[in-house]
Amino acid sequence: MKRSAMNAAIRAAEETLAAHRWALPAWAGWSPQDHRDNSDLSAWLRDRQLGWDVTDFGQGDFAARGLTLFCVRNGGQGPDERPYAEKLLFVGVGQETPFHAHKIKLEDIIVRGGGTLCVEFSRQGAVLDGTPDEVRIDGVPSPIYDRIHRLTAGQSITVPRGVQHRFWGEDAPVFVGEVSQCNDDFGDNYFLEPLGRFTAIDEDAPAHRLCWNEAP
């Protein structure tokens, strides 16, 4: 993915945040030089997978299959770590996050604003035994399979562990929140297809922001 395209995706996300009056920590606005000047904190953030993230899942078509994220908080194993995570997701119209599942992470996906978020579950590729037949939307049970769950602003869906799920924006870009157990993008993403979680970058422009896995 070209760095210029990643820059554009992050700038679009920053515009969405400004439109919704949603403020981020000061380090969300760091330049690459700021990361170098604050190397201890930058390393702490990187180790917890905190910060910006732009991916095309290795497919080379960000508009069709891609996602822009910002991880606000995330913990890890150990008594002094937070056992939870919070992310913000910026989902384009028809921009799919492909089918994937988590063994450890239980998550709520919350539509904070914008258009309609479509969420679909697959019977294939379950990574745990005994997956449920129902899913809860704002606490209300609904059959999980053979339908597209359409969520509008304020609605949330609890994604069961082990179940393959995908999502995309239907009618307008969607501003999405995620609240979950600790997030591990290295070890707890199980794609239904052989996809890549991280993007190979073509450095055709200076970086506007670094992604969390690029922090020095």
From TrEMBL:
<protein>
    <recommendedName>
        <fullName>D-lyxose ketol-isomerase</fullName>
        <ecNumber>5.3.1.15</ecNumber>
    </recommendedName>
</protein>
<keyword id="KW-0413">Isomerase</keyword>
<keyword id="KW-0464">Manganese</keyword>
<dbReference type="GO" id="GO:0046872">
    <property type="term" value="F:metal ion binding"/>
</dbReference>
<comment type="similarity">
    <text>Belongs to the D-lyxose ketol-isomerase family.</text>
</comment>
<dbReference type="InterPro" id="IPR010864">
    <property type="entry name" value="D-lyxose_isomer"/>
</dbReference>
<keyword id="KW-0479">Metal-binding</keyword>
<dbReference type="InterPro" id="IPR014710">
    <property type="entry name" value="RmlC-like_jellyroll"/>
</dbReference>
<dbReference type="GO" id="GO:0047828">
    <property type="term" value="F:D-lyxose ketol-isomerase activity"/>
</dbReference>
<dbReference type="InterPro" id="IPR011051">
    <property type="entry name" value="RmlC_Cupin_sf"/>
</dbReference>
<keyword id="KW-0119">Carbohydrate metabolism</keyword>
<dbReference type="Pfam" id="PF07385">
    <property type="entry name" value="Lyx_isomer"/>
</dbReference>
<dbReference type="InterPro" id="IPR047581">
    <property type="entry name" value="EcSI_cupin"/>
</dbReference>
